[in-house]
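Could you join me in thinking about how sequence relates to backbone shape in a protein? We need material for that, and I hope you will provide a protein of your own picking. Label the sequence line and the structure token line clearly, so we can match residues to local backbone shapes. Would you write everything just below, so we can both look at the same thing?
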Amino acid sequence: MRKNVSLKDIAEKAGCSVKTVSRALNNHPDVNENTRKRILKLAEEFSYYPNMVAKSLRTKKTFTIGYIVPDITNEFFGKVGIVIEKVFRGHGYSLLMSFTEESEVNEIKSLQLLLSKRVDGIILATVGTTGDFLREVIYKFHMPVVVIDNKEEGIVTNTVLHDNIAGAYDLTRHLIEHGHRDIACITGPLAETSGRDRLLGYRKALEEHGISVQDEYIKVSNWRVDGGYESTIELMKNSSSPPTAIFIANSIMALGAYKCFKKLSLSVPNDVALVSFDSLEFTEAIDPPLTTLSSVEEEVGKLAASLLMDKIRNGDIEVVSEHLIKAGLCIRKSCGCN
């Protein structure tokens, strides 16, 4: 029977110290890249697996990260999660994922669960209304937290967000450049900064181009397909003068708009032009392909993971920063472009 391989065995084969082997296996930056690769290859050949229980007891870490999102079916959060998991896997961590269904109660329960699991840090896509409890998580329990997608007002922690105002402004301006003036907006819940800021960017574009903002053209929805469908029905059937173009604050709701147009036998973009946030994979496959902002999932995931890893290593929850990810336009045919 093959004996259990130790760090010392790998060190002897690699011709270096046990300390260097340990650092290489834990992705310490002080290890030469060629040495790291040689050690990782030897560890794989010897089927070396560190004793994570012993390591956890020694370091008082569980080597697990929590990832909380509002909607597990939303491709954006899935892609961001894949990037986060990949980064942390390289550091010897595993990922615990929880989804809240856009519920404040569920978000608090998810945070409580991750605290009970003694995770080393949390990346949270918040619903935006759990500030009092989140403050406890960060300051009472000294939990490193990075917030993505939606800012929690009054909470001082690292955040990684879309540049929501700029993105909504650019998409709405693009419709204006096509000659549209009757432009509607379907946004998400205004309790969330992403919903508010995307509405703000839409309003800003209209105002700067001398177009009056009409309240009947603004619909606040729920980020889901059904919300996009119902809001589009209201715009096209109940408005005194239906819009000729619509800016939608995420691509999931835009799917609902497409369902509505099919039901009403309306053509995109001939009858109604359409643009939206989020360049999810289906946006290229629908007919006509949807004009969106470019994809930012990789950048959001890498930056959020890097910020959280730094907080875990340094143990400093006081050092915080806010990052806005700017996305360019991804022009397809739904806006009227060829």
